[in-house]
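Can you please make up a whole protein chain along with its backbone structure tokens because I've never seen that pairing?
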Amino acid sequence: MFSAFTDMVKWRAAMNDALRRGFPQVVSNTLTQAARIVDKAQRENLRKDFTLRNAYTEGSLFIWPASPTQRIDKMNAVVGTKSPYLPIQETGGVERAKGKSLAMPTVAGRGGDVKKAIPMPLSIRAMGQIGGTAQKFTAKGNRRKGKGFFILPAGPTLKGPAIFLRQGAQLLKLRLLGKKEQTVKARHWHTDAVKKITYAELLRIFERVGSIVMRIGE
């Protein structure tokens, strides 16, 4: 009993010394550094596995660093996304239409290039209340919201309903309608990034960060 008590006193003294010399800072820095490694990896996964047509998707990724002012057992660094559509790309599942059906853009709806983002004048928001077949313009030459867009139902030459835009004598098929849901394949862009932080890697980060903080505190 005496030897155990003596060991505990030494252990408590060592822990108090570690706390005094910045142990909470070491832990929070370790968690934050690990989160940054995961963030770098998840960004690489997005660039590799997705067709990124603009900066929105990658811009939705974020890090919340761990705070050294918290209790050590409460410290947590968060890395992930604020995007409403990336979670289902991670886990896989079924995407269901919020309205009557999904509106899937065509190549023409992307300005003729599947790798391009949808031009703002051809976005769902720009279409407004779809109706009418005559294209109307403002005094500045801009197309009025909702003018020129219309929906054609399925027929002999059209497998399903679609949104069209009339440009003179030309009809552009912009979006396919009719599907109420779509199966999304799991891509694990985030969990594959998290797997890079093994116990051995976390220990290496802890030792590296700890040596820096302790040297600063000397």
Remarks:
- The helical segments are 2-20, 23-49, 56-59, 86-91, 124-127, 191-194, 199-217.
- Residues 2-92+185-217 form one domain.
